[in-house]
Amino acid sequence: MRRILPLTVAALVLSACAYNEDIGRQQMSIVDDSSLNKAGEQAWAEALSKNNVSKDPKANARVKAVGQKLVDAAGLGDRPWDYAVFEQAAPNAFVLPGGHVGVTTGLLKIVDNDDQLAAVIGHEAGHVVAHHAAERQSQSMTSGLVLGVLGAAAGSSNYGQLINSYGGTAAKYGLLLPFSRKQELEADRLGVDYMQRAGYRPREAVVLWEHMQAQSTGSAPSQIMSTHPSDATRIAALQNYLAQRGW
After folding, report:
1. Is 21 a catalytic residue?
2. Which domain holds residue 67?
3. What residues are paired with 104 via a beta bridge?
4. Which of 11-20, 111-120, 182-191 has the lowest mean pLDDT?
5. DSSP 129
6. By the 8 A CB rule, do 124 and 101 touch?
7. Who's near 95: CB < 8 A, 6+ residues apart?
8. What would the mean pLDDT of 20-27 be, rounded to a whole number?
């Protein structure tokens, strides 16, 4: 029985893998888009109700205009998209399954032009095309299942106690967070592709992250403890990709 359970989990993982041409690798997904979209709708409604949404017509029109160009460039124009500007000082943006993009007023203050705004929204569109939300949720669910199976198989042995005590931490820092950083860099690459297709200057993505780096207070966690790559890592990866593309 102890051998059968791990093999069953492995079979589940393998059966859920498929090749994603946009990011050029195998991708696991045991979560369907409809459930994620439903969760995204709920989260979007909550974000609108619990946060101050800017009533500045120019800011909202700007985000929508730039956003729609990037959405079309990413091949996502066949679905309706919602955009909102949230009155928050921290420079940030996010995407939710189902077609929702939020941008903060803090971000709008540090971008010099629409090209840099396009870098942010293009990045968020990249997450959608890459199915990162489904992949991240699937990975989290699978890691929990694997740890449960290993803990049960190990029983009351010292090995079993070690897994039960530290397995979650090991999965988080050894698997989930590094993979999240990989996803972020993939979204960066896709984002500059969409920028170029939409007529924006891809190199402004580097300038944007230089601005973000300048905003850092020095209190950011070590990269190994973070779901996002460091600004320096991000800038170097973008510069390398832009050089390869000849942009």
Report:
1. no
2. 4-13+46-245
3. 86
4. 11-20
5. H
6. yes
7. 101, 124, 125, 127, 128
8. 76
Among 21, 41, 87, 124, the active-site one is: 124
Taking a C-beta distance cutoff of 8 angstroms, is the pair 216, 233 a contact?
A: no
Q: Which amino acid is at 246?
A: G
Structure tokens at 206: 């580097």
Whether 33 is covered by a domain: the verdict is: no
* Residue 129 confidence (pLDDT) above 80: yes
Judged on CB neighbours under 10 Å (0-12, 13-18, 19+), 39 is middle
CA distances from 22 to 36, 116, 166 (A): 20, 23, 35
Give me the number of domains the chain comprises.
Answer: 1
Determine whether 217 is exposed, middle or buried from the number of CB atoms within 10 Å of its CB (0-12, 13-18, 19+). exposed
Residue 26 within a domain:
no
Distance (Å, whole) CA 159 – CA 136: 27
Mean pLDDT, the chain, whole residue set = 78
In degrees, to the nearest 5, what angle opens at C-alpha 78 toward C-alphas 108 and 85? 20
Taking 80 as the threshold, does the pLDDT of residue 108 lie above it? yes
Q: How far apart are CA 133 and CA 139, in angstroms?
A: 10
Judge whether 35 lies within some domain: no
Q: Do the domain assignments include residue 134? A: yes
Contact 123, 105 (CB under 8 A): no
pTM for the model stands at 0.73
Name beta bridge partners: 26.
Answer: 19
Report DSSP state, residue 18. Answer: E
